[in-house]
Automatic annotation (TrEMBL):
Molecular-function GO terms, alphabetical: UDP-glucosyltransferase activity
InterPro entries: UDP_glucos_trans, UDP_glycos_trans_CS
Top-rank EC class of the record's enzyme: transferase
Top-rank lineage group of the source organism: Eukaryota
UniProt signal peptide: none
Family named by the database record: Belongs to the UDP-glycosyltransferase family.
Protein name stated in the entry: Glycosyltransferase
Coiled coil segments of this chain: none
Organism: Camellia sinensis var. sinensis (China tea)
Length: 509
């Protein structure tokens, strides 16, 4: 046995570095495995390591000396004509030119990472799907590659259904409804407008990349998912049996964060401190506040901001709104943004809105990054208007809160369907059109739709249906906690994978 491993399973984690939605769950997952006795190394850049350093130090020292550390590589940004540290900006993925250059800088890390794998010979590499090249490197070195998917099984099964059966090719017009074939539920209905463009223009752009990711996945040892069995049991079976993948459901990993500082401090500096948000929430009645946030990478038209603002004000319900617009997140534009103006001087908030909301205590507007976990857990928060990113969704599920779904891009319309059609713990705001983060944003949801959905969920219009929805949401939250607790399904999956990796050590020696 390799003495440097102290009889432990050695796991290397390689998160994708251009998105908080990829980085946050991988870091939490790595921490969970370390807490279960694995020797864990997270490969990232110094800037990202810094963002998560506090949590890792806490794990290393206070919490029973977990064997977890970072191995950092500096991203050669200068070589591709970018300023140092720009990979850490929230807006990078939205700037097409910058993200293409960053992809190229990341590809220059392939050799050093391969070298690290050769030296360390870990028991596995947990790789974000965005690094397909790790499949061949791991195969050459005999290291199991385990893919980390930053989404759930339901959306993955929906994607596979579209890929296999192409139901959208059998309809006559964009809004014609079709069912997604071959899924455990037969009520999953879509239309072409809600599908990502890459299903409609096969083999190009992002679609081409996804084919490469899939090819790499098929060569891999298995898959880790930040979900739990009771959330999507039929889809877990479907994924294993129909799609033939080896699977470990280990989440919701965010529940590993127990201390208030860990919940408050995740992946970015908050633009409002946890204490201020909690004091504001303490003044509100239980289930009376709607939390509105669209994740880490939202890009919306100034007029869409206006519609949200009018809709929230007209609903009469208290709200916390993370009103960040990344298309203007550089310093030059910061001033404008704070003055409530969009890119072209367009107004983003109605006259006097922020002042009115602050004075009346009706609304709290967060300009950049909010302590989301703290907010979702507060008893005053009765609903979450979300873009249906997987992390936000699983955080909302874990907090036991019903949602108003407002999907925008990526696989978010599939996740909306999970929440509204399968779990029945949310309602649609009725956004009808998929848009890429790189397309010119436009208004797709009117103020009336925002007002109606908020009044239904928070303002009492939904009556007994909301009471029932809350009951279902709370029940699922209980199941989420049980899954992560000692002896739960996710806890067992983590132990099973560690044991499997250890048993391979003796076979491989
Ligand atoms: N997040 C946060 N504060 C914010 C915005 C986002 O803490 O103001 C966190 C959120 O809790 C989640 C992640 O960032 O863990 C966003 O991931 P998600 O998959 O929901 O969306 P994405 O940003 O990938 O679209």
């Amino acid at each position: 046995m390799d003495s440097s491993k102290d009889g432990k399973a050695e796991m290397l984690f390689l998160p994708w570095i251009l998105a908080r939605g990829h980085m946050i769950p991988v870091i939490d997952t790595a921490r969970v495995f370390a807490a279960h006795g694995a020797k864990v190394t997270i490969i990232t850049t110094p800037g990202y390591a810094q963002l998560f350093q506090k949590s890792i130090e806490r794990d290393q020292s206070l919490l029973g000396h977990h064997d977890i550390s970072f191995h950092t590589f500096k991203l050669p940004t200068a070589e591709v004509g970018l300023p140092e540290g720009c990979e850490n900006l929230l807006s990078t993925a939205l700037d097409r030119d910058m993200s293409e250059k960053l992809f190229s800088a990341i590809s220059k890390l392939e050799k050093p990472i391969e070298q690290l794998l050769r030296e360390r010979r870990p028991d596995c590499l947990v790789s974000d799907m965005f690094y397909p090249w790790t499949a061949d490197v791991c195969a050459q070195l005999g290291i199991p590659r385990i893919v980390f998917h930053v989404t759930g099984l339901f959306p993955l099964c929906c994607e596979e259904s579209v890929r296999r059966y192409a139901p959208h090719e059998k309809v006559n017009y964009d809004t014609e409804t079709f069912a997604l074939p071959g899924l455990p539920d037969d009520n999953i209905k879509f239309n072409k407008l809600k599908l990502p463009y890459w299903f409609k223009t096969k083999g190009t752009g992002w679609g081409q990349l996804l084919d490469i990711f899939l090819e790499a996945e098929l060569k891999s040892y298995g898959i880790i998912i930040n979900s739990f069995y009771d959330l999507e049991p039929t889809y877990a079976e479907h994924y294993k049996n129909e799609m033939g993948r080896k699977l470990w459901l280990v989440g919701p990993v965010y529940l590993f964060n127990k201390a208030a500082e860990e919940k408050a401090d995740r992946g970015e500096k908050n633009s409002i401190d946890g204490g201020t948000v909690l004091s504001w929430l303490d003044t509100k009645k239980p289930n009376s506040v709607i939390y509105v946030s669209f994740g880490s990478q939202v890009r919306m038209a100034p007029k869409q901001f206006l519609e949200i603002a009018h809709g929230l004000e007209a609903s009469g319900c208290p709200f916390i709104w993370v009103a960040r617009d990344l298309s203007k997140s550089n310093e030059e534009d910061k001033e404008k943004r704070e003055g409530g103006e969009g890119e072209n001087g367009d107004k983003m908030l109605p006259d006097g809105f922020e002042e009115r909301m602050t004075k009346s205590g009706h609304g709290l507007i967060v300009r950049s990054w909010a302590p989301q976990l703290l907010i979702l857990e507060h008893v005053a928060v009765g609903g979450f208007m979300t873009h249906c990113g997987w992390n936000s969704t699983i955080e909302g599920i874990g907090a036991g809160i019903p949602m108003i779904t407002w999907p925008l891009a990526a696989e978010q319309f599939f996740i909306e369907s999970l929440v509204t059609d399968v779990l029945k713990t949310g309602i649609r705001v009725e956004n009808e059109e998929w848009v890429s983060l790189h397309w010119e944003p436009k208004v797709t949801v009117t103020r009336e739709k925002v007002e109606k959905a908020v009044k239904w969920l928070i303002g009492g219009d939904g009556g007994d249906q909301v009471v029932e929805m809350r009951r279902r949401a709370r029940e699922m939250a209980e199941k989420a906690k049980k899954a992560m607790d000692y002896g739960g399904s996710s806890d067992a999956a983590v132990i099973a994978l560690i044991n499997e990796l250890k048993s391979r050590q003796s076979v491989c020696e």
